[in-house]
């Protein structure tokens, strides 16, 4: 697997939705379906929201109130980031020339085992 990683400017562009060069396709694959892809996805999107959170500090009012605004913003951002994670992952894979249905190998094994168990249980005439 290639060890070509994006530089900080490329990574920020990638986080915002830009496509990385084909030489970084292995890095993109690992980023989106490799181990710890979910925490990376959440962190990547929180970086994009950080200017909004910083702007909340400029609002008038007590510090605890501004902190509460930031906390609410973080919770909402995490909620929506997690809710659209799968669609975002599929779109990023597609934009980088990878199959959008690509899954983590462990997750794919689990899906295959569940499908096999289902087919064995519910096949017609007990064939399986």
Word description of this protein:
- The protein has helices at 8-15, 25-33, 37-56, 63-83, 85-95, 105-122.
- It has one domain (8-101).
- It is mostly helical and 128 residues long.
- The protein has six helices and no strands.
- α2 (25-33) packs across α3 and α3 (37-56) runs antiparallel to α4.
- It starts with 7 loop residues before the first helix and ends in a 6-residue tail after the last helix.
- Residues 94-128 are annotated as: Disordered.
- Keywords: Membrane, Transmembrane, Transmembrane helix.
- The chain crosses the membrane at residues 42-59, 65-85.
- It comes from Rhodococcoides trifolii.
- This is DUF5313 domain-containing protein.
Summarize model confidence as the mean pLDDT: 89
Number of DSSP E strands = 0
Work out the strand percent.
Answer: under 5%
In the residues, how many domains can be counted? 1
The helix/strand order is: HHHHHH
Shape type? flat
Can you count the helices? 6
Q: Rg, please?
A: 20 Å
Biggest beta sheet attributes: none
Classification by helices and strands: mainly alpha
Ends distance: 38 Å
Q: Determine the fraction of residues in helical runs and give it as a percent range.
A: 55-70%
Q: Uncertain runs with pLDDT below 50, 5 residues or more?
A: none
